[in-house]
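Why do we bother with a discrete structure alphabet at all? Because it lets us treat a fold like text: something you can write down, compare, and reason about line by line. To make this less abstract, here is a complete entry for Type II secretion system protein. Read it the way you would read a sentence in a foreign language you are learning: slowly, and without expecting to understand everything at once.
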Amino acid sequence: MKKSLKKNKKGFTLVEMIVVIAIIGVLAAMMVPALLGFVDKAHESNKNAVASGLGRGIEAVLFEPKWDGKSDGTYTGIVATKKATFSDNASTNTEFAAELSKIAGEGYENGAKITVVITSGKLDSVVYDEKPASGSSYVPPTTSGKTVGIYTPQ
């Protein structure tokens, strides 16, 4: 009777289980860096989309005649409570800086910095510089510790 029980045993041995677990571990170790690369690309794409959307909104406002000759400068917006508030670095175009604050609207990451450069009444660039939130597991791909989205009109 004991002999027939041993012959009918089905299942995996301990060695087989260890081999399977080791193979799964190796495959997982190879996949993690690839997946992290996709996450970095997604964050970079998001920042570029934010800068592009803001840039296109600014370009639309610059078509208004009331801003002719009154919009040139470098404007810096700092995000607090998810809303960007802009100031003109030269402090001469405070009215247009206030207009930029309206265009930017809400929804940005707190602590982010937005820089807008306008020359001869035309938008030169928008740079959206988002610092990672404290406690965030995301580490930006740049050495400066920031993720930057850039928009320059064609």
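What the structure line is telling us, in plain words: DSSP finds three helices and five strands in the chain. The first strand starts at residue 73 and ends at 80.
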